[in-house]
Amino acid sequence: MAEDEYFAKIEAEKKARLAADLKAQKDRTALEERKALHWLRCGKCGAVMTTRIFRGVEIEVCPECGAVLLDRGELEALSGRDRSGFFEALSGLFGRESP
Ligand SMILES: [Zn+2]
After folding, report:
1. Which residue ranges make up each domain of the chain?
2. CA 94 to CA 26: how far, in whole Å?
3. For residue 60, how many C-alpha atoms fall within 13 Å in the half-sphere facing its CB?
4. How far is the CA of 56 from the centre of ligand 1 (A)?
């Protein structure tokens, strides 16, 4: 019957929307959990990074293994203050045009 088909279609659409909302919520939760777990943790050894000032820019340094974490803004700031071209070349690793 056309009416039954109509309501079945509406119901199926409602279920699909609900499933999509649930998936989006799960994805957001997973992202938040991952962020909380890794926030300012060393990507090599998992220690909590400490903030240091290097050439006037705050960067994260691992007190355990010495790894350095630079985000894009920090790298760009260092690039602007560096005459050797090293940080500018490093910026290229992020797939962005150098300033
Ligand atoms: Zn480390």
Report:
1. 1-39, 50-94
2. 29
3. 15
4. 22
User: Could you read off the pLDDT of 43-74 as tens digits, one per residue?
Assistant: 999 999 999 998 888 999 999 999 999 888 88
Share of the chain above pLDDT 70, in %: 92
CB atoms under 10 Å from CB of 67, counted, come to 15
C-alpha of 3 from chain center: 48
CA distance linking residue 30 with residue 24, whole number of Å: 10
Cα of 73 vs centre of ligand 1, distance in Å, is: 21
pLDDT band for position 80 (50/70/90)? confident
